[in-house]
């Protein structure tokens, strides 16, 4: 098997749909028969809990992996609902990494190194980033083959995007030559809202074919399902949110071969 592809979900703005997209795109790909790993690199742990992992029960998680790569394989959990979907969970302690590695050499390469032994086992590895451009996001971008950028269709969607693009370029130049932009996903799309349409148009003007044709609608099912520890496809597979992420999964796969 080829080595797995690492995709970082990044945007330093909070609440734009990084975690929702990580969970539900990963679940859709698992549903389509791919073996997928979600790496929860946000100390908030929303991707872990949203995939049904009880953080309090975990002995080892991503923070321990940063301290010692030995913990990596033991920390990975299979999700309850989708047998080909796995999680490397996190814990609020992960926040310590930002400070503890401050003086460390090659501190941007820790995640990349720890994921290497896992790449034989998975086709796709999605890394959910925190809402900042700190060391955790830097590690994700340094490890990744590509970065996927969720954008919420609201007035300030483009704010901060140029900074993110600059950071991606800088990482590419200094740490990770292979890094590409996988695509931009428009989330929380509301067809009845003219502003949504404006934002979508502007994003497409700038980023052209990098913007997925599939847009993710605003759908309450997507905000409900994490409290049940399930991806939307297992919670309400006929909901607009589930259909949206299923279509995104198909478009994502189609673009891999194109
Ligand atoms: N398409 C959507 N429709 C409705 N609610 C959404 C949608 N996408 C995300 N949400 C909700 O919006 C909030 C922020 O989304 P989240 O994925 O956690 O963003 P981020 O990880 O970028 O901070 C969450 O409460 C989530 O449930
Ligand atoms: Mg998040």
Using brief descriptors, characterize the structure shown.
single chain, 258 residues, alpha/beta, Rossmann fold, 7-stranded mixed beta sheet, 12 helices, globular, binds adenosine-5'-diphosphate, binds magnesium ion
Cα distance spanning the termini: 19 Å
Question: Got a strand count?
Answer: 7
CATH fourth-tier homologous superfamily: P-loop containing nucleotide triphosphate hydrolases
Q: What top-tier CATH class fits best? A: Alpha Beta
Tally of distinct domains: 1
Strand content: 5-15%
Q: Which residues sit in consecutive blocks of at least 5 with pLDDT less than 50? A: none
Descriptive account of the structure:
By secondary structure, the chain is of the alpha/beta class. It has one domain: P-loop containing nucleotide triphosphate hydrolases (Rossmann fold, 3-Layer(aba) Sandwich). It is 40% helix and 14% strand. It is built from twelve helices and seven strands. A seven-stranded mixed β-sheet has the order 3-4-2-5-1-6-7, sandwiched between helices. α8 links the parallel β6 and β7. α1 crosses α12. The radius of gyration is 17 Å and the shape is globular. The two termini are 19 Å apart.
Which helices and strands appear, and what pairs or packs with what?
Elements: E1 5-9, H1 18-31, E2 36-40, H2 46-50, H3 62-67, H4 72-75, E3 77-78, E4 85-88, H5 96-100, H6 110-115, E5 124-128, H7 135-143, E6 146-152, H8 161-174, E7 180-187, H9 194-207, H10 220-224, H11 232-235, H12 240-257
Parallel strand pairs: 1-5, 1-6, 2-4, 2-5, 6-7
Antiparallel strand pairs: 3-4
The chain binds adenosine-5'-diphosphate and magnesium ion.
Adenosine-5'-diphosphate (ADP) binds at residues 14-20, 46, 131, 187-188, 216, 218-219, 222-223, 241.
């Amino acid at each position: 098997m080829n080595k797995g592809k690492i995709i970082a979900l990044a945007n330093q703005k909070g609440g734009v749909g990084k975690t929702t997209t990580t969970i539900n795109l990963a679940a859709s790909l698992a549903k389509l028969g791919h073996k997928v790993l979600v790496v929860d690199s946000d100390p908030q742990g929303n991707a872990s809990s949203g995939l049904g992992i009880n953080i309090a029960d975990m002995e080892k998680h991503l923070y321990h992996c940063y301290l010692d790569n030995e913990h990596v394989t033991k920390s990975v959990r299979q999700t309850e609902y989708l047998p080909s979907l796995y999680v490397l969970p996190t814990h609020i302690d992960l926040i310590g990494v930002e400070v503890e590695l401050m003086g460390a050499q090659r501190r941007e390469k820790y995640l990349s190194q720890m994921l290497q032994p896992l790449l034989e086992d998975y086709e796709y590895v999605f890394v959910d980033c925190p809402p900042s451009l700190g060391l955790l996001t830097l590690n994700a971008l340094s490890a990744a083959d590509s970065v996927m950028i969720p954008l919420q269709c609201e007035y300030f969607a483009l704010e901060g995007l140029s900074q993110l693009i600059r950071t991606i370029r800088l990482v590419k130049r200094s740490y990770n030559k292979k890094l590409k932009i996988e695509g931009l996903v428009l989330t929380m799309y509301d067809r009845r809202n003219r502003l949504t349409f404006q934002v979508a148009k502007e994003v497409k003007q700038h980023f052209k074919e990098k913007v997925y044709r599939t847009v993710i609608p605003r759908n309450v099912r997507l905000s409900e399902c994490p409290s049940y520890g399930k991806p939307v496809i297992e919670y309400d597979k006929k909901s607009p949110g589930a259909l949206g992420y299923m279509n995104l999964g198909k478009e994502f796969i189609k673009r891999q071969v194109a």
